[in-house]
Design brief:
Distance between the termini: 39 Å
Largest sheet: 8 strands, mixed
Radius of gyration: 14 Å
Order of helices and strands: HEHEEHEHEEEHE
Structural class: alpha/beta
């Protein structure tokens, strides 16, 4: 498939990966993989190796938390660790506005502007991670070390 054949958000992710010195490992599935469980089933991997890109609203500013698909982010603990006010799950419209990607397909990269990002330390235990690649049918693989590098994320316990 030529790069022009990919939907805009996926093309943006592919471009961001290579621009940041990461390998373009984007895989497009025939069926949708909008949840960590669906992605793990399609890939035949551990649910905990799926990296959810979760968008939160921190006083009107986006906060991206890259969390294990097997974990639930504790927003109270994260807010306390950041010394921040209330963190709440972003609306689908807020997420789309700041990432250019729909909820369920948000990638760690490929956004219109850099977003403050936190990286769930529990993901370190996996040799290979899978993350959304901009839409509901696409994922890419990456190591924890490379994900940390390309996102410039702050490592943090999120639960």
């Amino acid at each position: 498939m030529s790069p022009d054949a990919f939907p805009g958000p996926v093309a943006n992710v592919k471009q961001a990966l290579t621009a940041l010195g990461a390998e373009d490992t984007v895989t497009v599935f025939d069926s949708r993989v909008p949840t960590a469980a669906a992605a793990a089933a399609a890939l035949g991997c551990d649910l905990a190796a799926i990296t959810n890109s979760l968008v939160f609203d921190l006083a009107g500013t986006p906060l991206l938390i890259l969390a294990s698909g097997a974990a639930r982010v504790d927003v109270h603990k994260v807010a306390a660790r950041l010394g921040a006010g209330k963190i709440r799950r972003a609306s689908p419209e807020f997420a789309l506005k700041h990432t250019g990607q729909e909820v369920g397909g948000v990638a760690p990269v490929g956004h219109p502007e850099k977003i403050r990002t936190l990286l769930d330390e529990s993901l370190k235990s996996h040799d290979l991670l899978w993350a959304g690649a901009g839409d509901h049918n696409s994922m890419f693989s990456i190591t924890y070390k490379d994900l940390h590098r390309i996102t410039d994320a702050t490592e943090l316990k999120v639960r």
